[in-house]
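Below is how a single chain appears once it has passed through the pipeline. First comes the sequence as given, then the structure the pipeline wrote out for it. We keep one example in the README because the format questions we get most often are answered faster by looking than by reading.
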Amino acid sequence: MSKQMNRLISTNFRKWCYNLTGFNQYGLRRDDCLAENEDVKEALKRLPQHIVDERNFRIVRAMLLDTNKRLLPKEQWTKFEEDVPYLQPIVEEVKKEREEREKWNSE
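Resulting structure:
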């Protein structure tokens, strides 16, 4: 099988898995679903306010839709190609800083 074919299968499989999770049917993005531990809370503080507001809107809308047992119309679902990480890179940075701080304090 060619590399191009493998990539196509991989991409199609990833899209299938993405749609199977269901959060996109509520208009959520992958990073909206991160558990809010201390690292995520710190990362949220570092985001511009308009991005935090957009995130909060998506989460509240999803909770309201779920409460009413409804989904968004399919054209409003979050698309795999458009769901780029906005929080995960900052969370990784916060984790590295915390681990470095813990290491520094333990020495």
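The CA atoms of residues 54 and 60 lie 10 Å apart.

See the next section for the split statistics.
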